[in-house]
Amino acid sequence: MVPSRYLRNQSTYDCSDQIRFLRSRVALVGLGGLGGTVAEILTRAGVGALTLIDGDRFEEHNLNRQLFCTQENLGSTKASAAETRVATINSAVETRVVPTFLSTENAFQVIAGHDAVVDCLDNIPSRFVVEDAARQAGIPLVSAAIGGLTGQVTVIYPQDGGLEWVYGPRDSARQTQGAEHLLGCPPQTVVLVAAMQCGEVLSILCHRTSHLLRNKLWIVDLSDHTVEVLALAG
């Protein structure tokens, strides 16, 4: 028996896939534009447990793209808003709220024990912190970034070259702000890139790994409707 809420998934994900989703644990790092949309999709897909990680609070400039940000909850923590939203969509999804920023000191402890980690951050140094923790925990990482009308997604397993193949040596990645702070982050880019991230996460959870964006970089540019997939190598 499949709950009615998942019936429209059935032509894509069968009962065994849905059971795998229900038994899975996914950590979401960053709950802004990308992270909020990822949380919404994974909740509706039926992922059984989500760890919601973000130490930030909503500000007015978040209203253009952050799904859980409303005029009424400005100043609220993004993690608590995500927890509330998940509970209103799917009461079967267990949530763990971590209202703090990840660091080299706490990242492994927070991430260990999950089936996948989703990087929805907005700066490169923090991405490397998450990648290191995911490697240490032996967990695949789905990483994404946006800047204006462009976005990118890649999948990194612990043994892969990973973010250095995208951004270069970590020692040179010192900027504390990502491209979105310079180029902006319109809502349509956020939603499209988050959807691609979720597609990769769900493929990992139901063991459909033959066509993952592993050692590849998916790039979309909405200004001219182009999509590219680049092979990554050291």
Q: What is the CATH level 1 assignment?
A: Alpha Beta
What is the CATH topology classification name? Rossmann fold
At the fourth CATH level, what is the homologous superfamily? NAD(P)-binding Rossmann-like Domain
- Proportion in helices: 25-40%
Q: What Rg do the Cα atoms give? A: 17 Å
Q: What is the N-to-C succession of helices and strands?
A: HEHEHEHEHEEHHHEE
Shape: globular
**How many β-strand stretches?**
8
Specify the CATH architecture: 3-Layer(aba) Sandwich
Q: How do the strands of the widest beta sheet line up side by side? A: 3-2-1-4-5-6-7-8
Average pLDDT reading: 94
List the total number of helices: 8
Overall domain count: 1
Structure in words:
With 234 residues, the protein is of the alpha/beta class. The chain has eight helices and eight strands, in the order H-E-H-E-H-E-H-E-H-E-E-H-H-H-E-E. The longest helix is centred in the last third of the chain and has 19 residues, at 187-205. The mean pLDDT is 94. It has helices spanning 15-22, 33-45, 78-89, 107-111, 124-137, 164-167, 179-183, 187-205, and strands at residues 25-29, 49-53, 94-98, 116-119, 141-147, 150-156, 216-221, 226-231. The radius of gyration is 17 Å and the shape is globular. The chain has one domain (10-231): 3-Layer(aba) Sandwich (Rossmann fold). Strand 1, helix 2 and strand 2 (49-53) form a beta-alpha-beta unit. The chain has an eight-stranded mixed β-sheet, sandwiched between helices.
